[in-house]
Write a structure and sequence with these properties.
The complex is a heterodimer of chains A (682) and B (95). Chain A is built from 30 helices and ten strands. By secondary structure, chain A is α/β, with parallel strands linked by helices. In chain A, the strands form two sheets. In chain A, strands 2-3-4-1-5-6-8 form a seven-stranded mixed beta sheet, with helices on both faces. Chain A has a two-stranded antiparallel ribbon with strand order 7-9. In chain A, helix 14 packs antiparallel against helix 16. The relative contact order of chain A is 0.07. With 95 residues, chain B is an alpha+beta fold. The two termini of chain B are 14 Å apart. The relative contact order of chain B is 0.27. Chains A and B meet through helix 4, helix 12, helix 17 and strand 10 of A and helix 1, strand 2, strand 3, strand 4 and helix 2 of B.
Chain lengths: 682, 95
């Protein structure tokens, strides 16, 4: 090859190398809850987002990419936290992300109206990260609420970029991106805040003792956390430097002596003093009014009206999710019916083998499985949509606060209201609603309990079967009502019992009541769409897989009656368990099928007993009632098991839930069996 | 409405000495200063990150049988009686 060609190739190569790759910047968004951080994230990244989990935690992180000029910027929306103390999973994830992933820039999002509290997090972030940008969001509110903020002054004092935004109207977004790039390119490092003496000297003494950075945490920060009595961090340092404990104790005692204050409080107070100094210098409140929120709170928090409002919001949520959702569900169902029957006809006309026809068109075949997954879609989407409107409007927090007055009497938190009541519609939906519960232990416990609450599918099966058994609408509905009421009792009683066993005290409620606002439609739509997609991809696989497994098991060996198939044999083997009740194998098989979708039980019962009317003669009355009770409480369906896995991210908790549910159902059903046998014998 | 102070010795919350004014019995509309907080490390940290620390001034927006709505640092919070009764306060004169 001639020199000339090589030269040209070299030029092309270098131009490509220099011009093509964009500079990548990773930006983490941190902020208190209710400052509009997610709205800002949506305004920044638009449609290019996905959600991921931090390893080992159920906390969600949202990722989004944009290209701006020569830069490719990745935004990571950290969970909203009040601090980085590490007392909750959210705080740990936010903190660990900043330390371990080392984003190039950390943006601290604040709300113009809540700066006196929001700036506390800024100070904590500045202790961890070098390059920080401060966003003052909801900037439109300062006029309404009578604030004046000296943004230039604040920026100069903190030595960071400060950007006012109104994320709802997408104002200030480009300025923010420019500030991020400027901070990154010009290496703008914020002012380092020192604690007032003698606190700073104590911190430095301890930091010198630690000497080096441990697991990415720098020694000064570790010293501060030890003085704040962060047990996790103290243990981390202790493993490397055992003698740190004595030194920490000595300094704690000295602070007590010289400052007459508990060391953690001394540090926290010092941060708030810095915040207060900043506020008094750069923020002025001209008038004092929260007009809209104050008036609305007079109604929403009114001693009597609050329950009316709660009821109305609940009816709206329930109606949209299950009534409108149900309408679309029916529509999807009918479309699938048409597809299924025409496919069946076509296949039969082509003389396809009957096994293939059944595999494609039966209820537990491919089309049936697709239908089951598709029918979840409208309900889940509408639930997420309505729920996030209620959540982001500021109503949900107030309703949880109101209802806590009632639920705390039975040892429950107000935040359990929506998960429990929504489960009457669909267990999966109820499980999604546990999202608002921060207390992990309580959330797990609640997830175990809510599968007792019969969902609409179970209520449907119950009402049909009860009518067949009793031929009397009044008796049937009385028993149905008793079973539903029984579910709430179970939630209450077993909840109390398990809380005692696990020493899980109900956390007293502290809840922020954010200013009322109308969340932007595009954000709510996008977020519910992403959530629904995640749910469908996870639960969809489980539902689809589960249904297909049932089909396969009930067709091995092919073309034999159900009792000779694998699943029939499993049912027969399992029916030993029900000897005390005297159920035959057909009832057991029906229950087995119910795991994959609660509606299956009815179809299998009808199929196995050869018609509806025979069901009533096959059971004695106490047997029938016990069967129904067991059926209601025994196990969540496969979709709720998938939802349970998604919410807890723990296989062992899923297993434990199933075991506890089964045992409880068995015990309660047996009690009911004995009682009804006694009553009916009299 | 004149603010009435006092602690009505709630049966289950014995750990608070009687007749010490807590937030749970602060009347609506009052402004108080936090004196101390009777809580474990976890709750203490939770309250402190909201700004509820000794020396902080709190405006009581609402009180319904111990269920308190407070405003501080520009933000409103709802506290259940279990928490409000752990926060010892004193009235701020002249407000």
């Amino acid at each position: 090859m001639s020199e000339g060609v090589l030269f040209i190739l070299r030029i092309i190569f270098f131009t490509w190398v220099i011009e093509m790759p964009e500079k990548k910047i990773r930006v983490a968004l941190a902020g208190n809850p209710n400052v509009g951080k997610s709205t800002l994230f949506n305004a920044l990244t638009g449609a290019h987002q996905h959600i991921g989990n931090w390893p080992g935690k159920t906390v969600e992180l949202a990722f989004g990419n944009i290209t701006y000029r020569d830069y490719e910027i990745e935004f990571i929306d950290l969970p909203g936290t009040y601090s980085l103390s590490g007392f909750s999973d959210e705080e740990v994830v936010a903190r660990e992300f900043i330390i371990k992933e080392k984003p190039d820039v950390v943006v601290v999002v604040t709300a113009s109206t809540a700066l006196p509290r929001n700036l506390y997090l800024l100070l904590q972030v500045m202790e961890l990260a070098e390059k920080v940008v401060l966003v003052i969001n909801k900037i439109d509110m300062i006029k309404k609420e009578g604030y004046v903020i000296d943004i230039a002054g604040l920026s100069k004092e903190l030595q960071i970029e400060v950007v006012p935004t109104n994320a709802v109207m997408k104002e200030g977004i480009e300025e923010l991106v420019k500030s991020i790039i400027k901070t990154y390119e010009k290496n703008i490092v914020h002012k380092e805040y020192r604690y007032p003496e003698p606190l700073e000297s104590y911190i430095l003494t301890l930091a010198r003792k630690i000497g080096k950075e441990i697991d990415g945490y720098d020694s000064r920060w570790l010293a501060i956390r030890i003085l704040e009595r962060d047990s996790e961090i103290t243990n981390l340092v202790k493993q490397k430097i055992p003698e740190i404990i004595d030194e920490a104790e000595r300094i704690h005692n000295e602070i007590h002596k010289t400052m007459k204050q508990d060391p953690p409080l001394a540090i926290i107070s010092a941060r708030y003093e810095t915040v207060d100094t900043l506020i008094s210098k750069y923020v002025r409140r001209v008038t004092l009014k929260h007009q809209v929120s104050e008036t609305l709170d007079k109604i929403v928090l009114h001693p009597v009206l609050q329950f009316v409002v709660t009821g109305l919001v609940f009816i709206l949520l329930f109606w949209v999710t299950f009534y409108i959702g149900g309408f679309f569900q029916d529509a999807i169902g009918s479309i699938f019916e048409i597809i299924t029957s025409s496919t069946e006809e076509y296949l039969k006309s082509q003389n396809a083998p009957s096994l293939l026809v059944s595999f494609i068109t039966s209820d537990s075949g491919i089309l049936g499985a697709l239908d089951a997954v598709a029918e979840f879609f409208p309900v889940i989407l509408l639930f997420y949509f309505t729920f996030s409107v209620i959540e982001n409007s500021g109503l949900l927090a107030r309703l949880a606060f109101s209802i806590d007055k009632i639920l705390s009497r039975i040892g429950m938190s107000g935040k359990a209201f929506f998960p429990i009541t929504l489960s009457l519609g669909c267990t999966v939906v109820g499980m999604q609603a546990t999202k608002i519960i921060e207390d992990r232990k309580f959330k797990f416990l609640l997830l175990l309990l809510i599968s007792y609450v019969p969902c609409s599918a179970r209520i449907g099966v119950l009402s049909v079967v009860l009518l067949i058994l009793f031929h009397d609408a009044f008796i049937a509905s009385t028993i149905l009502f008793a079973i539903i009421l029984g579910a709430f009792f179970l939630v209450g009683i077993e909840g109390k019992l398990l809380m005692k066993l696990t020493k899980n005290k109900p956390t007293p409620l502290i809840i922020e009541l954010p200013p009322y606002s109308l969340p932007p439609l595009s954000m709510v739509l996008r977020m519910s769409w992403i959530r629904t997609k995640i749910f469908l991809s996870k639960a969809g696989t489980a539902i689809f897989g589960g249904i297909l497994i049932v089909w396969i098991l009930s067709n091995i060996p092919p073309n034999v009656p159900l009792n000779q198939t694998v699943i029939g044999q499993i049912g027969i083997a399992l029916s030993v368990v029900f000897t005390p009740f005297g159920f035959d194998w057909r009832a057991t098989v029906a229950l087995l099928f119910g795991i994959f979708a609660k509606e299956n039980t009815l179809a299998v019962l009808q199929g196995l007993y050869g018609g509806v009317s025979n069901v009533s003669t096959a059971f004695t009355l106490p047997q029938a009632i016990a069967f129904m009770v067991f059926y209601t409480y025994y196990i969540p369906c496969i979709a709720s098991i998938a939802a349970l896995k998604k919410e807890t991210n723990s296989n062992s908790w899923v297993a434990l839930t199933i075991i506890v549910n089964l045992l409880t159902a068995y015990l309660v059903a047996y009690l009911v069996f004995l009682l009804s046998s006694l009553v009916l014998a009299v | 409405m004149s603010p009435r102070w006092g602690f009505h010795g709630h049966g289950r919350r014995r750990h608070v000495a009687s007749n010490v004014p807590t937030l749970a019995f602060t009347p609506m509309g009052a402004v108080v200063e936090v004196v101390s907080i009777n809580a474990g490390a976890r709750l203490y940290s939770r309250l402190s990150e909201l700004g509820i620390i000794p020396g902080e001034r709190i405006h009581v927006v609402m009180n319904q049988n111990g269920y308190i709505v407070v405003e501080l640092r520009g933000v409103r919070y709802g506290l259940s009686p279990g928490i409000a009764s752990k926060i010892i306060v004193r009235p701020v004169a002249g407000v």
